[in-house]
Amino acid sequence: MSYVLLATAKRYLRVTHAADDVLIQSNIDSAEEWLALRCGFLWAETADIESNVDGGGISLWPPSHPVISVSEVLDTEGSTAESTNNYNLCNNSQVVHDGELRWAKGRGRWQVTYTAGYGGAGAAAIAIPDGLTNIVLGLIARAYNNRGGIMSEGAEGFTVIWQKFIDTDIARQIQHYDWTSGVR
Fold this sequence. Notes:
This protein is α+β, with helices and mostly antiparallel strands and 184 residues long. The chain has two domains: 6-42 and 128-175; 46-116. It is built from four helices and nine strands, in the order ααβββββββαββα. The protein has helices at residues 6-13, 21-39, 130-145, 169-175, and strands at 46-53, 59-60, 67-75, 80-81, 87-90, 94-97, 110-116, 151-154, 157-160. Strand 8 (151-154) and strand 9 form a beta hairpin. Helix 2 crosses helix 3. The relative contact order is 0.20.
């Protein structure tokens, strides 16, 4: 499912004909997928159980973001669930142990059951930021206007090499939404 609409992208590109609709839609889909993988976020609200979360610090870091809610934290070594009174969600990215306590050490010791992603209908839902939409539109514009220079031919045909945009103004915009870098 695309979150940037074809009509929005065509307006942004100032395209009034339908001849390139398939190309533009393909660019939307691949730009959204690349951006989500690059930045570690989910476009849609998704429930997940992440095993193998490392302990030993004040925070546990589930891999998908933004984290909307945490329903259970389980110590897999003792098969015991932490009381929900012992932790809080902080910055939609980390499960913080209350007080000065640390999560027990252990590589992959913790299992976190949580909901993450943009969108959704609940009170804790986080809307897709306009900045992400603007980044996708910027990527699509670059791909559409430079069709020959950023394409690679593979077994499935031609694909856009999104990584070529990383040293541009778009890269600076991406940093604000990059959950993987810790820069946020």
